[in-house]
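Researcher: Please translate sequence to structure tokens.
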Amino acid sequence: MAVNAQSVSRFGARHPTLRFSLIFAALVLSAGTALAHAVTPGDAGYIQEIWGVHIIPFMYLGAKHMVTGYDHILFLLGVVFFLYRMNDVAIYVSLFAVGHSITMLAGVWFGWGVNAYIIDAIIGLSVVYKALDNLGAYQRWFGFQPNTKAATFIFGLFHGTGLATKILDYQISEDGLLPNLLAFNVGVEIGQILALAVILIVMSYWRKTVGFFRHAYTANVVMMSLGFMLMGYQITGYFVAA
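Model: Translation complete:
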């Protein structure tokens, strides 16, 4: 059967969740690894060429990293997907932020070096894990529900380690290192709040639709698939680079 733009458009109109997911997947694939727990080449050059304390620029870089880091966004989307109360959202996002901050700051300060492909593959796994959690897979497969708060904190540690690994690659100057890192981390949290605000606004409208729970299943399956794709991309890169 021939497939034309009109039929695709009608299909997308009948399946808004799938259409959104395909668009998001296309953006992820087109972005490649350029923005995953990294900064753009221009920003990386800026980091390597300056020294001394630069609070505002590093806050900007931190916020930019968060709002453009699709792996962060995917994981955050998974975390808040079925959270309806703001208290729960605040608790889970804070756990992720604390974990991310600990390893990002400590990793750069103490020079922890981790293979970027391996840590980014683990970050892809975090997306898969959360999507499966949202699908109730662990209860069906193993008969128990893992501690979701502990998992959010632990994966926050891995996400922070991933960013620390990339920052170390840029050989950031030790002159003004601590204030710049703290400013970067504050920027990350600001970016996280901005990204989360957009996610929650979209989710609040989506949840009011009749087909939310049916679309939610599809969205989490797509999210899981994207996590596997991120893992496969990084694992392939690891063996190619070896």
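Researcher: Any highlights?
Model: The chain has a mean pLDDT of 82.
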